[in-house]
Amino acid sequence: MESGLGSNRNERHWIFKDDSWFSQFRNGSNPWMARYAYALIFLVSNLLAWAVRDYGHNAFPEMEKLKNCQGGRGCLGAEGVLRVSLGCFAFYFVMFLSTAGNSRMYNCRDSWHSGWWSAKIGLWIALTVTSFLVPTFIVQIYGEIAHFGAGVFLLVQLVSVISFITWLNDCCQSEKTAERCHIHVMLLATAAYIICIFGIIMMYIWYAPEPSCLLNIFFITWTLVLLQLMTSASLHPKINSGFLTPGLMGLYVVFICWCAIRSEPAGESCNRKAEASNKTDWLTIISFIVALLAMVIATFSTGIDSQCFQLQFSKKEARTEDAVPYCYGFFHFVFATGAMYFAMLLIGWNTHHTIKRWTIDVGWTSTWVRIVNEWLAVCVYLWMLVAPVILKWRQTSESA
């Protein structure tokens, strides 16, 4: 019996590794390929929410017949985005409840996660359609909850990025690769700092052209201060983490600062880029598409990075042959919060906010969310540097 089960597993492993994508979906459930299918569903939900927001009034005149949608107008625009997001969230939350805690392959929950695509696509369509039939007050309640859920997504993504940077630094400083990667680390760190300084200079030129632009000057200058603070903390003799991690974190916080200032509404005298892009042109459309794809990729990459959130004792467990390649429950949880996040981006974090076509994440609320996320990223990074030193000092004091 065991030999038969083993041969079945080996056969499935052969299918996973050697067959084409179509054959892998046709011949059996594959958790590796399933990730892309879930990401595709998430992307389609994003596109549907955008279409409902920008073109729903002309494309869906039959919405006026729905009583639960305030004469049809409530089902489009900002509320339409929330309704699509609600259907997407419900789908991934159902998947989260049905797969959470599963640690072994070749069982029912593994098959449900990796297969049964006709049933799951039907479930996703049904939940999306149902979201347009629920009363408006439920959608408004969901919109308030989505603010919190989107914040959770940003926090999870933040921890994932910092963990990756820390892991990369640890790999470069290990005994096996320290000498071989020394030059590469110095080149990478130097390039990171050069890009950071160049980015800060360009933000001063683009977004602080006049001394009266005090808010943008504060944002950019404080980002420069945070970069110096992270570098000083990393190079402290008791920490000694080198230049690589603060350089890469500097790239991250400079990028967030740039996104925050870009989110300022068009028409502000200190945001000439926003004023220049007030008309819908090919550059605006390309920027919107890139931002949308970047959000889907960020959700996908964060969803499969469950190891940085595991408890310390779970990391020490030996990995068995039939262990799942990634945490299914965490994967769907990230996509569920990502559904709330894309809703906030498309409505500018304001449930009553009207956004111009082909724009994403625009408004003062979006700006301050980005800035707070930047400051929080620096705080989490500094804590990850200082925490081992503090714990070691406490242990030394207690032993003494």
TrEMBL record:
Subcellular location: Membrane
GO CC term (a single one): membrane
Superkingdom of this protein's organism: Eukaryota
UniProt entry tagged with the keyword Membrane: yes
Main location: membrane
Keyword Isomerase on entry: no
InterPro entries tied to this protein: TDE1/TMS
Pfam (any one): Serinc
Protein's membrane topology: Multi-pass membrane protein
Alphabetically ordered keywords of this record: Membrane, Transmembrane, Transmembrane helix
Family according to the record: Belongs to the TDE1 family.
Protein name (database record): Serine incorporator 3
Species this protein is from: Gossypium arboreum
Lineage, top ranks: Eukaryota, Viridiplantae, Streptophyta, Embryophyta, Tracheophyta
